[in-house]
Design brief:
single chain, about 230 residues, alpha/beta, seven-stranded mixed beta sheet, two-stranded antiparallel ribbon, 9 helices, about 45% helix, globular
Length: about 230
């Protein structure tokens, strides 16, 4: 059960798909994760209690807000890190404006860095994270590279979650972590069994039988969540 304040903030965020941009114009921001997915993420953070957290693909900040609200509720003081090299140019700073308007800007360290550049630097400094959320470049190369680099900085027993778990590129990244790195899926089943079965059948040919039967039933709508093996 999500605490009332967090639920109220998520409800308010999703009360309109139109957000103010840095040019003063109202921007349509209908491409963010669904409200139910942000509720899943908030609940996940509340259960995991991660201290060091990061997401990339700030966008309109829906995910960032959900993670930060859950951390504040838990009293976890470490600032959440959010990456987005296109926040100003493509997103018109909608995410940063939302964080400011909701008095959450001080709880977030925003960096206009590419995920690969940041993760390589973090690995060199031996910085590690407890929880990571991936919603950046959806190309095959970028998504698999994100998975490989994230594995280097995710602590043993840490959790990584991917948005768009039904994209081919995400499926490739998830299979890499499971088959090559020994990650285990974290079940996020929130939908009725008949819906899960219909999704398996619908996407089996495109994503492959293995993914349809071994991963799709574990998704939280379109979020794939995995736990790194403990040392």
């Amino acid at each position: 059960m999500i605490p009332e304040r967090i639920q109220r903030e998520i409800d308010d965020f999703y009360s309109s798909s139109f957000k103010l941009g840095n040019d003063g114009a109202v921007e349509y921001r209908g491409g963010s994760p669904r409200k139910e997915e942000c509720e899943i993420l908030a609940d996940l953070v509340l259960r995991l209690k991660p201290t060091r957290t990061i997401d990339w693909g700030l966008g309109d900040a829906a995910v960032c807000i959900s993670i930060v609200l859950a951390k504040k509720h838990l009293g976890l003081g470490d600032r959440h890190i959010s990456l987005d090299p296109f926040q100003s140019s493509t997103s018109k700073d909608v995410g940063l404006i939302q964080l400011q308007n909701r008095n959450l800007a001080d709880d977030v360290e925003f960096l206009a860095d590419r995920s690969d550049d940041y993760l390589v630097a973090a690995a060199a400094k031996e910085n590690t994270f407890d929880f990571m959320f991936v919603d950046g470049d959806h190309s095959f190369g970028a998504k698999v590279a994100d998975a490989q680099l994230a594995d280097r900085v995710l602590r043993p027993g840490g959790v990584i979650a991917f948005h768009d778990g039904l994209f081919n590129s995400t499926a490739a990244a998830v299979q890499y972590l499971i088959k090559d790195r020994g990650y285990e899926l974290v079940r996020l089943d929130v939908e009725r069994r008949w819906k899960v079965r219909a999704r398996q059948i619908r996407h089996m040919r495109r994503l492959g039988t293995w993914y349809a039967f071994n991963v799709v039933p574990w998704l939280g709508i379109s979020i794939a969540c995995l736990k790194k093996p403990s040392e």
